[in-house]
Design brief:
Elements lengths: L10 E5 L8 H14 L6 E7 L5 H7 L4 E5 L10 H14 L5 E5 L3 E2 L4 H7 L6 E4 L4 E2 L3 E2 L8 E5 H6 L1 H6 L8 H11 L3 E4 L7 E2 L11 H21 L9 H8 L8 H20 L1
Parallel strand pairs: 1-2, 1-4, 2-3, 6-10, 7-11
Antiparallel strand pairs: 4-9, 5-11, 6-9, 7-8
Length: 281
Protein backbone atom coordinates (compact mmCIF):
# COMPACT_ATOMS: atom_id res chain seq x y z
CA UNK A 1 0.00 0.00 0.00
CA UNK A 2 3.00 2.33 -0.47
CA UNK A 3 1.97 5.41 -2.44
CA UNK A 4 3.64 6.09 -5.77
CA UNK A 5 5.82 9.17 -6.21
CA UNK A 6 3.05 11.26 -7.75
CA UNK A 7 0.39 10.24 -5.24
CA UNK A 8 -0.49 12.08 -2.07
CA UNK A 9 -2.63 10.75 0.78
CA UNK A 10 -6.21 11.98 1.08
CA UNK A 11 -6.71 10.51 4.55
CA UNK A 12 -4.32 10.70 7.50
CA UNK A 13 -4.81 8.18 10.30
CA UNK A 14 -3.39 9.38 13.62
CA UNK A 15 -2.55 6.74 16.22
CA UNK A 16 -0.09 5.42 18.75
CA UNK A 17 0.76 1.79 19.52
CA UNK A 18 1.56 -0.28 22.54
CA UNK A 19 4.98 -1.88 22.25
CA UNK A 20 5.33 -5.19 20.43
CA UNK A 21 6.65 -7.39 23.22
CA UNK A 22 5.41 -10.85 22.21
CA UNK A 23 2.19 -10.70 24.25
CA UNK A 24 -1.46 -10.92 23.23
CA UNK A 25 -1.68 -7.23 22.39
CA UNK A 26 0.75 -7.86 19.53
CA UNK A 27 -1.81 -10.07 17.77
CA UNK A 28 -4.54 -7.46 18.17
CA UNK A 29 -2.37 -4.66 16.78
CA UNK A 30 -1.30 -6.85 13.87
CA UNK A 31 -4.95 -7.51 13.00
CA UNK A 32 -5.48 -3.74 13.00
CA UNK A 33 -2.54 -3.27 10.62
CA UNK A 34 -3.67 -6.12 8.36
CA UNK A 35 -7.11 -4.55 8.04
CA UNK A 36 -5.47 -1.33 6.84
CA UNK A 37 -3.22 -3.17 4.41
CA UNK A 38 -6.30 -4.86 2.91
CA UNK A 39 -8.09 -1.58 2.16
CA UNK A 40 -9.37 -1.17 -1.39
CA UNK A 41 -8.76 2.60 -1.10
CA UNK A 42 -5.02 3.20 -1.04
CA UNK A 43 -4.53 6.94 -0.52
CA UNK A 44 -3.99 6.63 3.23
CA UNK A 45 -1.04 7.60 5.37
CA UNK A 46 -0.50 6.51 8.97
CA UNK A 47 0.81 9.28 11.21
CA UNK A 48 2.23 7.35 14.13
CA UNK A 49 3.57 8.90 17.32
CA UNK A 50 5.72 6.66 19.49
CA UNK A 51 6.64 7.11 23.15
CA UNK A 52 9.60 4.72 23.48
CA UNK A 53 7.49 1.62 22.70
CA UNK A 54 9.52 -1.26 21.31
CA UNK A 55 9.49 -2.43 17.66
CA UNK A 56 6.60 -0.25 16.48
CA UNK A 57 8.36 1.20 13.43
CA UNK A 58 9.76 -2.17 12.37
CA UNK A 59 6.44 -3.99 12.64
CA UNK A 60 4.47 -1.31 10.81
CA UNK A 61 7.06 -1.19 8.02
CA UNK A 62 6.63 -4.95 7.51
CA UNK A 63 3.04 -4.30 6.39
CA UNK A 64 4.22 -1.91 3.65
CA UNK A 65 1.88 0.83 4.78
CA UNK A 66 2.47 4.45 3.86
CA UNK A 67 3.58 6.00 7.14
CA UNK A 68 5.24 8.82 9.00
CA UNK A 69 6.63 8.06 12.44
CA UNK A 70 7.20 10.79 15.03
CA UNK A 71 9.00 10.38 18.34
CA UNK A 72 6.87 11.83 21.10
CA UNK A 73 8.14 13.16 24.39
CA UNK A 74 6.14 12.93 27.58
CA UNK A 75 6.60 12.58 31.33
CA UNK A 76 7.35 8.90 32.03
CA UNK A 77 4.38 8.68 34.40
CA UNK A 78 2.01 9.85 31.63
CA UNK A 79 3.23 7.14 29.20
CA UNK A 80 1.77 8.77 26.06
CA UNK A 81 0.07 11.92 24.80
CA UNK A 82 -3.01 11.99 22.56
CA UNK A 83 -2.36 15.71 22.15
CA UNK A 84 0.94 14.98 20.40
CA UNK A 85 -0.70 12.25 18.30
CA UNK A 86 -3.21 14.77 16.96
CA UNK A 87 -0.78 17.68 16.54
CA UNK A 88 1.54 15.54 14.42
CA UNK A 89 -1.33 14.61 12.11
CA UNK A 90 -2.40 18.26 11.86
CA UNK A 91 1.19 19.23 11.02
CA UNK A 92 1.21 16.73 8.14
CA UNK A 93 -2.19 17.90 6.88
CA UNK A 94 -0.99 21.52 6.79
CA UNK A 95 1.80 20.46 4.40
CA UNK A 96 -0.57 18.67 2.02
CA UNK A 97 -3.72 20.42 0.72
CA UNK A 98 -4.89 17.10 -0.80
CA UNK A 99 -5.66 15.72 2.66
CA UNK A 100 -9.42 15.73 3.15
CA UNK A 101 -9.82 13.84 6.42
CA UNK A 102 -7.89 13.15 9.61
CA UNK A 103 -8.88 10.02 11.54
CA UNK A 104 -8.14 9.49 15.21
CA UNK A 105 -8.46 5.85 16.23
CA UNK A 106 -7.44 3.24 18.75
CA UNK A 107 -5.39 0.32 17.41
CA UNK A 108 -7.46 -2.54 18.83
CA UNK A 109 -10.14 -2.48 16.14
CA UNK A 110 -10.55 -4.18 12.76
CA UNK A 111 -11.87 -2.34 9.69
CA UNK A 112 -13.75 -3.94 6.79
CA UNK A 113 -11.68 -3.91 3.57
CA UNK A 114 -13.94 -1.34 1.90
CA UNK A 115 -14.03 0.98 4.90
CA UNK A 116 -12.03 3.87 3.39
CA UNK A 117 -13.69 3.48 0.00
CA UNK A 118 -17.11 3.77 1.67
CA UNK A 119 -16.07 7.02 3.31
CA UNK A 120 -15.20 8.57 -0.04
CA UNK A 121 -18.42 7.32 -1.60
CA UNK A 122 -20.39 9.43 0.83
CA UNK A 123 -21.25 12.93 -0.19
CA UNK A 124 -20.24 14.59 3.09
CA UNK A 125 -20.93 18.23 3.40
CA UNK A 126 -17.84 20.12 4.47
CA UNK A 127 -16.96 20.45 8.13
CA UNK A 128 -17.91 16.91 9.13
CA UNK A 129 -17.00 14.86 12.20
CA UNK A 130 -17.98 11.19 11.92
CA UNK A 131 -17.89 8.14 14.16
CA UNK A 132 -18.80 4.47 13.86
CA UNK A 133 -20.70 3.31 16.90
CA UNK A 134 -21.62 0.92 18.36
CA UNK A 135 -18.77 -1.43 17.44
CA UNK A 136 -19.07 -5.20 17.34
CA UNK A 137 -16.93 -6.90 19.96
CA UNK A 138 -15.14 -9.73 18.12
CA UNK A 139 -18.05 -9.81 15.72
CA UNK A 140 -20.68 -10.86 18.26
CA UNK A 141 -21.56 -8.18 20.79
CA UNK A 142 -22.30 -4.52 20.27
CA UNK A 143 -20.68 -2.00 22.57
CA UNK A 144 -23.06 -0.10 24.79
CA UNK A 145 -23.53 3.62 24.53
CA UNK A 146 -21.98 3.97 27.96
CA UNK A 147 -18.61 2.93 26.52
CA UNK A 148 -16.04 5.06 24.75
CA UNK A 149 -15.42 5.91 21.12
CA UNK A 150 -12.73 4.08 19.12
CA UNK A 151 -12.94 6.09 15.92
CA UNK A 152 -13.45 9.75 15.01
CA UNK A 153 -13.06 11.23 11.52
CA UNK A 154 -12.62 14.97 11.00
CA UNK A 155 -12.69 17.36 8.09
CA UNK A 156 -8.96 18.14 7.93
CA UNK A 157 -9.30 21.88 7.30
CA UNK A 158 -11.53 22.37 10.32
CA UNK A 159 -9.28 20.33 12.61
CA UNK A 160 -6.38 22.52 11.50
CA UNK A 161 -8.38 25.54 12.70
CA UNK A 162 -8.67 23.82 16.10
CA UNK A 163 -4.92 23.27 16.40
CA UNK A 164 -4.42 25.79 19.21
CA UNK A 165 -7.35 24.36 21.19
CA UNK A 166 -5.72 20.93 21.01
CA UNK A 167 -2.29 22.30 21.90
CA UNK A 168 -3.48 24.32 24.89
CA UNK A 169 -5.67 21.72 26.63
CA UNK A 170 -3.42 18.68 26.80
CA UNK A 171 -4.72 15.11 27.06
CA UNK A 172 -1.97 12.74 28.22
CA UNK A 173 -2.27 9.14 29.34
CA UNK A 174 -5.59 7.34 29.58
CA UNK A 175 -9.08 8.65 29.04
CA UNK A 176 -11.16 11.70 28.04
CA UNK A 177 -9.73 12.20 24.54
CA UNK A 178 -13.01 11.41 22.75
CA UNK A 179 -15.00 13.69 25.07
CA UNK A 180 -12.55 16.49 24.33
CA UNK A 181 -12.54 15.97 20.55
CA UNK A 182 -16.33 15.91 20.35
CA UNK A 183 -16.43 19.13 22.37
CA UNK A 184 -13.92 20.64 19.92
CA UNK A 185 -16.07 19.50 16.98
CA UNK A 186 -19.09 21.14 18.60
CA UNK A 187 -17.26 24.41 19.20
CA UNK A 188 -16.30 24.54 15.52
CA UNK A 189 -19.86 23.66 14.48
CA UNK A 190 -18.91 20.44 12.75
CA UNK A 191 -21.71 18.27 11.38
CA UNK A 192 -21.79 15.13 13.53
CA UNK A 193 -22.47 11.93 11.58
CA UNK A 194 -22.69 8.28 12.65
CA UNK A 195 -21.65 5.91 9.83
CA UNK A 196 -23.15 2.87 11.60
CA UNK A 197 -24.66 0.51 10.45
CA UNK A 198 -23.53 1.18 6.87
CA UNK A 199 -19.95 0.74 8.07
CA UNK A 200 -19.18 -1.61 10.96
CA UNK A 201 -15.91 -2.16 12.80
CA UNK A 202 -14.90 -4.89 15.21
CA UNK A 203 -13.54 -4.05 18.67
CA UNK A 204 -10.96 -6.48 20.07
CA UNK A 205 -9.95 -4.81 23.40
CA UNK A 206 -6.27 -4.52 24.26
CA UNK A 207 -5.22 -5.96 27.61
CA UNK A 208 -4.50 -2.89 29.73
CA UNK A 209 -2.86 -4.82 32.56
CA UNK A 210 -0.47 -6.50 30.14
CA UNK A 211 0.34 -3.05 28.83
CA UNK A 212 1.23 -1.91 32.35
CA UNK A 213 -1.86 0.25 32.87
CA UNK A 214 -2.88 -0.44 36.45
CA UNK A 215 -6.33 0.58 37.75
CA UNK A 216 -4.77 3.24 39.98
CA UNK A 217 -2.81 4.73 37.06
CA UNK A 218 -5.93 4.75 34.85
CA UNK A 219 -7.96 6.51 37.55
CA UNK A 220 -5.29 9.15 38.20
CA UNK A 221 -4.86 9.75 34.47
CA UNK A 222 -8.61 10.04 33.95
CA UNK A 223 -9.08 12.73 36.61
CA UNK A 224 -6.10 14.78 35.42
CA UNK A 225 -7.46 14.77 31.87
CA UNK A 226 -10.97 15.42 33.15
CA UNK A 227 -9.72 18.62 34.80
CA UNK A 228 -8.35 19.84 31.47
CA UNK A 229 -11.60 18.94 29.70
CA UNK A 230 -13.65 20.83 32.29
CA UNK A 231 -11.38 23.84 31.85
CA UNK A 232 -11.89 23.71 28.07
CA UNK A 233 -15.65 23.45 28.44
CA UNK A 234 -15.84 26.39 30.83
CA UNK A 235 -13.46 28.55 28.79
CA UNK A 236 -15.58 28.00 25.66
CA UNK A 237 -19.04 28.12 27.27
CA UNK A 238 -19.73 24.48 26.41
CA UNK A 239 -21.91 22.15 28.46
CA UNK A 240 -20.29 20.07 31.20
CA UNK A 241 -22.47 17.23 29.88
CA UNK A 242 -19.63 16.45 27.45
CA UNK A 243 -18.24 14.47 30.39
CA UNK A 244 -21.11 12.01 29.84
CA UNK A 245 -20.69 9.46 27.05
CA UNK A 246 -24.45 9.01 26.62
CA UNK A 247 -24.66 12.72 25.88
CA UNK A 248 -21.77 12.53 23.39
CA UNK A 249 -23.32 9.60 21.54
CA UNK A 250 -26.65 11.34 21.26
CA UNK A 251 -25.04 14.27 19.48
CA UNK A 252 -24.20 12.06 16.51
CA UNK A 253 -27.59 10.56 15.78
CA UNK A 254 -31.03 9.98 17.29
CA UNK A 255 -31.39 6.89 19.44
CA UNK A 256 -31.66 3.74 17.33
CA UNK A 257 -33.50 0.68 18.69
CA UNK A 258 -31.47 -2.51 18.55
CA UNK A 259 -33.16 -5.93 18.59
CA UNK A 260 -31.68 -7.44 21.74
CA UNK A 261 -33.23 -7.17 25.22
CA UNK A 262 -29.96 -5.85 26.58
CA UNK A 263 -30.24 -2.88 24.29
CA UNK A 264 -33.73 -2.13 25.65
CA UNK A 265 -32.16 -1.73 29.09
CA UNK A 266 -29.56 0.64 27.63
CA UNK A 267 -32.31 2.54 25.86
CA UNK A 268 -34.14 3.03 29.15
CA UNK A 269 -31.06 4.51 30.78
CA UNK A 270 -30.45 6.68 27.75
CA UNK A 271 -33.98 8.05 27.68
CA UNK A 272 -33.77 8.87 31.40
CA UNK A 273 -30.62 10.83 30.66
CA UNK A 274 -32.35 12.73 27.87
CA UNK A 275 -35.21 13.55 30.23
CA UNK A 276 -32.78 14.77 32.87
CA UNK A 277 -31.01 16.92 30.26
CA UNK A 278 -34.29 18.48 29.12
CA UNK A 279 -35.25 19.27 32.70
CA UNK A 280 -31.89 20.87 33.45
CA UNK A 281 -32.00 23.22 30.45
Amino acid sequence: MILKNNEKPKILLACTFREFDGGGNDDIQRIFLSSLKDQTFKELELVITTFSEKKVKEVVESYRLNQKVFKGSVNRKKRYSQTQVLLNAISEAKKNPDVEYIIWTTVDIKFPSNFLEEIFRRDFIQNTCATIHPTNKKGFFEKRLSEGFDFLLFDARTLIKAEEDIRKYTIEGWGIIEHFLIAVATKYRMNLVNLYPQIKIIKMENDRVQGGQTPSWILKSYWENRANLDRYLKDNALSLRFNNLFYCHNLFSPWKTFPSLGDLFERGKFELLLLKNRISR
